[in-house]
Amino acid sequence: MRPFLAASFQSSIGNAIGYIALLLLAYDLTHSAWAVSAVLLAEFVPAIALGPLFGALADRHPRRRLVVTADLLRCAAFVALAFAGSLAAIIGLALVAGLGGALYQPAAKSALPGLAGEHADRAMGVLVASWSAAGMIGPGLGAGLLVVLSPASLMLVNAATFLVSAIVLARLPIDAARTAAAACPGDAAGEPAAATDHGIRAGLRTLRAIPGLAVIVGAGAATTLAFAMMNVAEPLLARSELKTGGAGFALLVCAFGIGSTIGALRGRADGWTLLLTLTGGGLALLASALAPSVAIAAVTFLVTGVFAGAFMSTEHQMIARLSPQAVLGRAFGLKDSLDAVALCAAFVGGALIATHTDARVVFAVSGAAALLVALVSSGLLLRAGVVVAPRRAVRIRVLRPQRGSGYAPVPVEVGDTAG
User: Fold this and answer.
1) Residue 165 and residue 218 in one domain
2) Residue 61 — φ and ψ, nearest 5°?
3) Judgement on whether residues 232 and 153 belong to the same structural domain of the protein
4) How confident is the model at residue 60 (pLDDT cuts 50, 70, 90)?
5) What is the pLDDT of residues 210-219, one digit of tens each?
6) Distance between CA 154 and CA 139 in Å, rounded?
């Protein structure tokens, strides 16, 4: 488990460095904002179009093979990007890198619970926290490296992290747990044998039949839409409303990153935690809309990050907990696809609101939307009767015959007694 998480962490840092270099390279070649937008869209298009398909592949084929293939594909794409000389080549290779990312995500996230065993919830929380930490460390490290290296050289740095990840993951027994579960179909997580159908539609039907899972995935996409609008308004809030420069903006981004890393480590597979973090995040966004100074905004951004990271961690843990191993790849593939759509919609919606109003209104709309998602989700989760209690072991007393008269109590541990 630890080598898996370490490999993911270092490649996530490399990816953050690589995309900074990618955007700089696109802008230096064209001096056009549209070129930057095209490169950003290239990252999301494969996940939107192919997320459910790649999730189905993760359920049908060895996940180790898929994650290694995805890492090697991204490695090759970024090596080629280091020598790309035209915008068309950059966009095409960015699509290849996005394709590798779309293949990697559902396979890796569905492989981790089986690899971590009884520590699956904690491992998923650490994975989400590593993404937040990488998003904070990567840009700073990339900025430092740009002092001595060119953007093209940073592409090679990113490619090296994907190569390291592929080598590490190729040596891990990623599919061992699923192989063992397949030997006894129907035993793992109480899943019916019919759930092992490999078709995308059959898998999605199975997911819909799991109480509360569709609500969690849908709430995650809606929350992504609500929270991602703030990304558009962050620089506007720092510069126009709070009258601070680039340093103030960097402070706000850093505060959010620290908070999300801390929050991700506090997530737990519990429906009430999901609703609490979503509600807290919405209130923190509203507080950011009212922040009178950059110092207070840094505090509200930190709190927002804590709730956002905890929500994302909780959501991933609940999906992994509720989904049978046979359809776990499709669950994460569908989630990745919906999240990518939500991100694109948030960027467009946030820009439209900011254009016609100001940054504070964007934060207010973002917070109100998060509170609305919390309200609707709470009703749907209660109606679905979803299991919301965390996994815990309890001791019960079983009477076993003993010599002489009477029975001797024997303590027996029972695993998940949620609900």
Assistant:
1) no
2) -115, 160
3) no
4) confident
5) 888 888 998 9
6) 12
Distance, in Å, from the CA atom of 2 to the CA atom of 275, rounded to the nearest integer, reads: 30
> Would you state the structure tokens that stand for residue 135, as one six-digit string?
């998003």
Q: Quick one: what percent of the chain has pLDDT higher than 90?
A: 35
CB atoms within 10 A of CB 72: 17
- Same domain, residue pair 19 and 161: yes
What's the total number of domains in the chain?
Answer: 2
Verdict on whether the full-model pTM lies above 0.70: yes
Q: Are residue 336 and residue 257 in the same domain, yes or no?
A: yes
What CATH number corresponds to the domain at position 26? 1.20.1250.20
Task: Write out the two tokens for 419.
Answer: 């609900």
What is the CB neighbour count within 10 angstroms for residue 311? 31
34 exposed, middle or buried (CB, 10 Å; 0-12, 13-18, 19+)?
A: exposed
Residue length, the chain?
A: 419
In the block, tokens 């192989």 appear at: 179
* Contact criterion met (CB below 8 Å) for 24 and 74: no
Task: Tell me which of 135, 153, 183 is where a domain ends.
Answer: 183
Q: Which helix (H) or strand (E) holds 224?
A: helix 213-236
- When mean pLDDT is compared over 88-92, 209-213, 400-404, the highest value belongs to 88-92
Residue with tokens 């490290």: 141
